[in-house]
User: What shape does this take?
Amino acid sequence: MKKGYFMTKKCLLSFCFLFSFCASIFCVSYSEKSWRILEQAQVCFDSGNYGDALKFAREASVSRKNETENEFNVLDKAISPAQVRKAGDEFSAVLKVLKEREQKEAADIIEKYLKLYGNSYYKDSIHNMLDWLKERNVYPEADYLTGKIYQVEGEYAQSLSFFERAYSEKDYLDISDMQYEILYSIGFIAKINGDLEKFEKTLLLILNNDEFFKNELLKKSITKAISDDKNENVDRIFLLYRADSKYSLMALSELGDLYETRKESKKALECSSLAAVESFAHILTAIEQRNSQFKYTSLENFFEECKKYEEILIWSQKNNVWSIFYQLAKRAGANGNIIFAQTLYSVMANSIPDSYYRSLSAGQLSD
Assistant: This one.
């Protein structure tokens, strides 16, 4: 129980490293007092001062509500005059009139949210933005940080409540993709609580936005190549198939582990194979950006090339990439694809960058 708990915390911390860019959400609205208060809360959290972090997170939520009410009132008043109404509903026309009338505050509000969410999010309608703004009296980033505070203090019920609240408010995130960090947090609390049904549902919710996971033909093609059980298919699947989704790797790995414990070997293999292809594609892109002359010819030459770049090795370790390849061999073997599994073990024993998985793979080779 304890081991699983610490592994879960390690996985979650690893994902939060991936999402470190999300700290940049705090720099999309410099003028907002709520942003500055939430930044204070984050600083306190990072330094282990959880009492002050909680206080500032609550203050940030109140401040955001007040700011939003003010923005709604400013915008509602600015578009009420007949001259503005005659301009129509499209942003370009409304902005033109507002600037002519020197309604700078209202124009700045519109442009701020267009920059954050884009014109299409509001269907190019000032009234859609106004309706949305009327409901934007929540601060999901503050709720998420509050959940993390309760989590580190071991109050998982409270933590889960705030994570779920933050996810329900995802339409108001300053950066939409932060919803994946929130979902992972919900999922891992479910795992700690032993609620594996909720854990699975949350992982599937993350993967619901992965076009490759939803591509049944792609998944069947990859697993068929493995099931054909030929030596050459170890290299061929990475030559033939490409898939790269930013937030799926941990979900695929965890889901594969879950299916393995349930003895659902085909589903586990499917998750491992897609995770391997996605991690390979992501690293290959990074290699090609650094070495435009590199051409993939075999998995062995790919592993050898990985060794040349420290940042790729760091990313791969943080994302458990070498474990993903090892699990692929292990699950292929469990599925009866012994030739494929032994060939992959052999390649890893000779060239995978991580010494632990080189040794582990060598130990799996038949005499």
Summary: The two ends are 36 Å apart (CA to CA). The CA atoms of residues 114 and 120 lie 9 Å apart.
